[in-house]
Amino acid sequence: MNCPMCTRWQDQPQLRIAEFEHCYAMLNGDQFFPGYTLLFTKRHVTELFHLQPAVRQAVMEEVSRMAAALASVYNPAKMNYELLGNMVPHMHWHLVPRQTTDPLWPRPIWSEPHEDCLLSDDRYVQAIRSIRAALGLID
């Protein structure tokens, strides 16, 4: 199996935010929407119903914890949660703090193509540190 999500944690260490019991959280390289984060299961699984109830509940708590930290840092008008898996069939959430001032508000983030917004290494580090602090993680 050639799943890009299965190797993402190893492939992009500079974007790592946190390792939880069941999931990894990483800042998305494209920061067109500031704070855009991916949270994905450590184990390759495609559907929520494939998880045992206790694990499913724990995963949803990790999603909620990550979203709360992003909300604390970015103070969005709305947090978007996307769990699709059509193109990458590995359970992963796109957690996107949305602002009423963003160019695509209130439409979905994929409603129009846009150029990737890549940050300097220092800005990625600053964003990740802020999110980790909101999670209560000490560097």
TrEMBL record:
Q: Name one Pfam family in it.
A: HIT
Locate the HIT domain: which residues? 3-105
Q: Which Gene3D superfamilies match?
A: HIT-like (3.30.428.10)
- Membrane-spanning segments: none
Catalytic residue list:
H92
Q: Where is this motif: Histidine triad motif?
A: 90-94
Q: Which GO molecular-function terms appear in the entry?
A: hydrolase activity
Checking InterPro entries in the record gives:
Histidine_triad_HIT, HIT-like, HIT-like_sf, HIT_Hint
Q: Name one GO biological process term.
A: nucleotide metabolic process
Keyword Lyase attached: no
Question: What keywords does the record list, in alphabetical order?
Answer: Hydrolase
Q: Which PANTHER family match?
A: ADENOSINE 5'-MONOPHOSPHORAMIDASE HNT1 (PTHR46648:SF1), HIT FAMILY PROTEIN 1 (PTHR46648)
Q: What is this protein called?
A: Histidine triad (HIT) family hydrolase
